[in-house]
Amino acid sequence: MLNYLLFIATIGGIYGVLALGLNLIWGGAGMVNLGLAGFFAVGAYVSALVTTTGHLPIPVGWLLALIAGSIAGLVVVLSTTRLREDYLAIVTLGFAEVVRLVAANEIWLTKGSDGISGIPGPGKAALGANFNVAYLLILIVVLAVVFVLMRRIDRSPYGRALRAIREDAQVAQVAGKPVLRFKAQAFALSAAIAGLAGALYGHFTSYIAPDLFLPLITVYIFLSVAAGGIGNPAGALVGAYLVMTLLESARFLVEFIPYVTAVQRAALKELLIAAALILVLRLMPRGLLPERIPRAPQPQTGGTT
Amino acid sequence: MSLLSVTDLRGGYVAADEIVKGAALHVEDGEIVSLIGPNGAGKSTLLKLIAGLLRPSGGHIHLGDRDIAGLGAPEISGLGLSFVPQERNVFGTMTIAENLEMGSFTDGRHARQRMAELYERFPMLAEKRRAAARTLSGGQRQILAMAIALMNAPKLLLLDEPTAGLSPRAAEELFGTIVALNKTGVAILMVEQNALEALAVSARACVLVQGRVEREGRAAELASDPTVRDLFLGGKAQPMLAGTT
User: What is the domain partition of chain A in residue ranges?
Assistant: First the structure.
């Protein structure tokens, strides 16, 4: 049971890292990245490959996952600059599928749908049964670092410029903000964080395969950010754990539903999760921890127009 | 040398379809110039071409002695030419103070000093500095939009229909603000639908018709010119209703 909870806490934390990364661009600059799972996969594969086939130390794998994520992000975002903004969503969605199909078909590199097993965990042999605790601690440190970074960005002039771009890219442009450069930077950073999350995932479960990177992950992360409160890093984090809790508790709850087959049970699980999220957003339309938007001032006397 | 001089400027939203077809105009230091003309003449497009939001397909735009045609909007705004777009021109969910910060470059100390000056000039902004910009009235929003543009101390301000959507009284107030601003030494080139009012506060004006400057001259003369009056100042039914836009 304890191991199960540790597992959930760790996976929830990895979702949290992804959600923080997504919030930077979705909440911050209003860019929609439907290919989150793709950047997640790029990081997971790069780190897995360099530490298994490449025999490099794990931290190097993590670093390379960050770099690979940011490069992939730059390529994707710069290839869409001539398109209208909503096409970024389509292109990223396609990107994630391309990554998954490459992973499934380039068997010489990725072992195809067999996946890569035996990905080393940090100190796994020495720690033995304590590995899960140790890994959770590492994850908490990473999560804290990413969280602090995101919050600093959110409150910095750079973060405000991103929000200005979200509000109106044209006005931001005439106000002297290099819109394209800011968007590309934010997107690359977000993709790098997703790549890091992928590496964290691979070294935790020791196994990755193409079917672990289905678009459903992207959906979960979007739900996390939406439920937690778009535009607020703390909300992204809370949302990720909320979605994780819902996912896992739904799995137990459906066990108590009588007269249904296993397949129906799986469908009911999705239904429960959906209903819970709809409820959250119905009751708190702007998420659990909404972005702080300044209130209207107190009515003043002698106003004009 | 003119502050701004535009020669044979061409361009539009797509390369194949030029809206501005060889426009020429100039703005001298510290003057107000109005750009008037029928709907679809390309007035806003001309401003966007000058501001760098659209890329010219031909012609020259000199700001001082520098040709700025082809530069991007952020660069041009750094060279002392600020553009205030029509209507949607502030960041709604951000505070007044944050909106002003957006208009500045990263030099923090200079920005604070400039903000203080603008608060002094527009006390309404100082009063509401912590309020979200979307809570402002139409006239107040225009002032904020101009203040954002003024943050980097431009020599020339381009205003795209500053009084659009304002009540007659608010429009009149705004024209007053524009004149007061001009007296501090900022040259203004504005597109206006309220043509008579705009001519009344301008030194000179240009009449844009189908992408070309058809008439140019002292504002007072244009305001009393019968053809101009007939065409754009509500003298007769406007011919452009039947034409293409």
Answer: 2-214
CB B30 within 8 A of CB B37: no
HSE, side-chain direction, 13 A CA sphere, residue A116: 27
CB nearest A173 (choices: B53, B149, B170): B53
d(CA B1, CA A259): 88
In what order do the strands lie in the sheet containing B58-63? B20-27, B4-11, B58-63, B66-67
State pTM to two decimals. Answer: 0.81
Would you call B11 an interface residue with chain A, using a CB distance cutoff of 8 Å? no
What's the full length of chain B, in residues?
Answer: 245
A25-77 residue pLDDT tens: 998 888 999 999 999 999 999 999 999 999 999 999 999 999 999 999 999 99
User: Which element (helix H / strand E) includes B36?
Assistant: strand B32-36
Dist. CA A24–CA A211, nearest whole Å = 27
The shortest C-alpha distance from A88 to chain B (Å) reads 21
DSSP state of B135: G
User: What structural domains does chain B harbor?
Assistant: 4-238 (3.40.50.300)
- Strand B58-63 relative to strand B4-11, pairing: antiparallel
ipTM over 0.90: no
The 3-state DSSP class for residue A4 equals helix
Mutation target to probe the A interface, by most A beta carbons within 10 A, among B50, B86, B93 is B93
